[in-house]
Amino acid sequence: MSEMLKDPMILRQLIMDHYEFPRNHGLVDDTTYSQKHMASESCIDDIVVQVKIIDDKIIDIRFDGVACTISTASTSMMTELLIDKTRLEAKKIIEAYFMMIDNQRYDEAILNEAIAFSNVYKQPNRIKCATIGWKAIKELIEEGEVNE
């Protein structure tokens, strides 16, 4: 991990930037996208994640809904990390993210800005917020593999 991404102030700024200006935000009305609705019973989070996969490659990911800062920022970062990846590459990144959230050893290099959530494990009440979008894309990728 670069020294810059270890600075708590920079990590907070990254999270706030992705919250205030979420990437790939807004759903599309396109039947070539698969979508998953996710809601949290413990937070305001209620989002829809859409994905378009062609020839095993993630072409686009979109999301929208009502969500807290952590949920919005982590899902925004997820979209940037996974677009243009193959399913296998995406699954490795998703696995590393969940290992990080569980405070296990993980490959920091593949998580890029998402390491901003490396301390979420210290706040159990925020884990669902930090993983809701990631769980949605994980399920969408797995469902897409089953349906092919």
Chain-wise SSE layout:
Layout lengths: L7 H13 L13 E6 L6 E9 L2 E10 L2 H14 L4 H15 L22 H23 L2
Antiparallel strand pairs: 1-2, 2-3
What does this protein structure show overall?
The chain is an alpha+beta fold. The chain has one domain (4-146): Sufe protein. Chain: A (Alpha-Beta Complex). The chain is built from four helices and three strands; from the N terminus they run αβββααα. The chain has helices at residues 8-20, 69-82, 87-101, 124-146, and strands at 34-39, 46-54, 57-66. The protein has a three-stranded antiparallel sheet, covered by helices on one side. A hairpin with a 6-residue loop joins strand 1 and strand 2. The mean pLDDT is 93.
Keyword list:
single chain, 148 residues, alpha+beta, Sufe protein. Chain: A, three-stranded antiparallel sheet, 4 helices, 3 strands, 17% strand, globular
Structure, briefly:
The chain has 148 residues and is an alpha+beta fold.
Fraction of residues in helix = 40-55%
Number of domains: 1
Which class best fits the helix and strand makeup?
A: alpha+beta
Distance separating the two termini = 37 Å
Helix and strand element order: HEEEHHH
- Examine the coordinates and then state which fold CATH places here, giving the name of the CATH topology: Sufe protein. Chain: A
Contiguous helical run count: 4
Task: Report the average pLDDT across residues.
Answer: 93
Low-confidence stretches: none
Largest sheet: 3 strands, antiparallel
Determine the strand fraction and express it as a percent band. 15-25%
Strand order of the largest sheet: 1-2-3
Shape: globular
- Kindly provide the name of the CATH class: Alpha Beta
CATH architect. name: Alpha-Beta Complex
Instruction: Please report the total strand number as a whole number.
Output: 3
* Global Rg: 14 Å
